[in-house]
Automatic annotation (TrEMBL):
One of its GO terms (cellular component) is membrane. Its EC number is 2.3.1.15. GO terms for molecular function: glycerol-3-phosphate 2-O-acyltransferase activity; glycerol-3-phosphate O-acyltransferase activity; phosphatase activity. The keyword Acyltransferase applies. This is Glycerol-3-phosphate 1-O-acyltransferase. The chain crosses the membrane at residues 20-45, 225-252. InterPro entries: HAD_RAM2/GPAT1-8 (IPR056462), Plipid/glycerol_acylTrfase (IPR002123). Pfam families: Acyltransferase (PF01553), HAD_RAM2_N (PF23270). It comes from Handroanthus impetiginosus. Keywords: Acyltransferase, Membrane, Transferase, Transmembrane, Transmembrane helix. SMART domains: PlsC (SM00563). Its main location: membrane. It is a multi-pass membrane protein.
Amino acid sequence: METVVSELEGILLKDPHVFSYFMLIAFEASGLIRFVLLLLLWPVIRLLEVLGRENDGLKLIIFVATFGVRLSEIEAVARAVLPKFYLDDIDMEAWRVFSSCSRRVVVTKMPRIMVERFVKEHLKADDVIGIELSMNRFGLATGFMKDDFDVIGKSVATLCKDGQPSLGLGRPNSGSGPLFLPLCKEQCHPPFSNDKSTHNHHIIRPLPVIFHDGRIAKRPTPSGALLILLWIPIGILLAAIRIVVGLVLPMWAIPHIAPLFGGQVVVKGSPPPPVSASNSGVLFVCTHRTLMDPVVLSAVLRRRIPAVTYSISRFSEILSPIPTVRLTRIRDVDAHKIKRELEQGDLVVCPEGTTCREPFLLRFSALFAELTDRIVPWLLRKIASALGGRVTTVVDGWRQSPLLVSSPSCVEPP
């Protein structure tokens, strides 16, 4: 059985720098203050790397990003946020070599808890070797490591005591590469050959990331994180203006003022008419790309369409320019609420129950399909750029005449 031991950062991941992943831990598991503090320390961290003290810089990153954070919060970010950014940075040439061996081991200088779920579920690794975070008796991270980085080489030797690894993928000048590469029969360094005859076994593809629950759309590199912070006051001001405009103006006026905010609304097709005495309302079924999906639909139809929600906050309900109906996740109660709303008019439902920016459909409840046959599927194809732009949406299935819309939806930080 061939065994491959591969470094994660700089090999399976193109970027050898792990700073951005700790920025995600700091922001998603703690908040903006820790995010800003870690960014302010980046020049110090970079200086330590230049002075050849990369390990000390990494220890400082780990301390600032994890000190006082609950283990459960770090696990949640590693499960629902980090995989998307890891997968976006995968080096497919390294992956082809890595996946060609029957037993796969990943080595990282990041805390094991941050990478284990991703490399085992998406990269099909058998084992993960990384550092362990020190925790106190309250389940909070102390910011320190249980052992130093030299434990990585010892762990690889212990793991492979039954036989020497066939192949080692690593950077000879990196911190973790020299810790395990001498233990392997053969060493392979980037750039990797595209020769498929080498290690020619069945090659599996990484498992795609379907669910991403992060609040940051782009990986926060130092420059990207700085742009996010600079964008926040502008975004708050722009959001406030748009909320006020959405609450004050009638829906029919929104497409006309969209160009003032850098957007454009283009409607092609025949939208469903309002509810009449002869029939019930139309149920619009959305793929839940953003929280703005029902708002954009209301602007397109030029009337405020109520939306059913599962877990929207009270504050969001107050700011919403359209009515909202809170569901309970109790099937009979929710069915009664939806039927009652449809008797009064049109309704929007997002059956996936949560937002999903990835090009996949999440598992969803089919309750809506049992309540009415007047259903119109509606799709938001892409998210607006940071300064507005075009968002293509499609409302299909009404009298064989699809409705195509381009509209500025939500504004996200760059």
